[in-house]
Amino acid sequence: MAPLRFGYGTNGLTDLRLDDALGLLADLGYAGVGLTLDHMHLDPLAPDLAARTRRVARGLERLGLTATIETGARYVLDPRRKHGPSLLDPDPDARAARVRLLIRAVQVAADLGAHAVHCFSGVTPEGTPEDTAWQRLAEALGPVLDAASGAAVPLAIEPEPGHLLSTLADFHRLRHDLGDPQLLGLTLDIGHCQCLEPQSPADCVRAAAPWLRHVQIEDMRRGVHEHLPFGDGEIDFPPVLEALASTGYQGLTVVELPRHSHAGPQLASRSIEFLRKAATEAAHAPPRIASSRTAPAAPTPVRGGTP
Q1: In terms of residue numbers, what domain contains 275?
Q2: Fewer beta carbons below 10 Å: N end or C end of the chain?
Q3: Is-above-0.70 flag for pTM?
Q4: How many domains does the structure of the chain reveal?
């Protein structure tokens, strides 16, 4: 099995300067970082982005870290609307602002040598027919995928509870709607699998393997969208890590605790210790016996908001 490469998301280290956050992760033995483009770290809208990105690239190289670019900053585009505007916004100019941000993220990823750019669909606006929302999403992603192709950086869309694209089945709908573009991949959040997918998280990993470009990981409970430190939820992690390793996944597996920055350094330390122990258990587990069992259907609606 391929060794897994663990990272930690900067959205869980927002009380630290970026240089301090990267130094912490390197000291703890992480292989990389999920770098959220936001005002407190690498602001995608401030002047001199290319020069600032080159500086970050030098820091990553010096520390031996790799990166994934994440675009889930809450208020980077609109100081009054969380995650707004989205790719589904009724206003075409607002949708275009999100598209420009994602294209900029692709360029940052290329300059950093990042292995993927994460994104999400957004929540369907009130009063918007479902077919209209899917059409907006496909049209908005067109120029982003063009930029991704030109930069040779995969775009990894995340199924997010409460969003238009919320499940693996929704990812496949989008993939087929777009004609199965080579650069469209998947961000799989292990907690989200526990929260609402019909399959177990380990089975979700195996089902998603051909399209897997980025992985986020944290604990979670069934039917409750709340990112939890390891051990505070319901997930059995050794089977999940065994499934990831057995697929040959080589990207980062990034700890995603966006509401825990107040304890970021401590949780980063605890998380890498937890994941190493779980990976060791996975490596020494007996061979898996295939099972057709799936988890029970998720409660509806899912409780908890978007991080």
Answers
A1: 5-283
A2: N
A3: yes
A4: 1
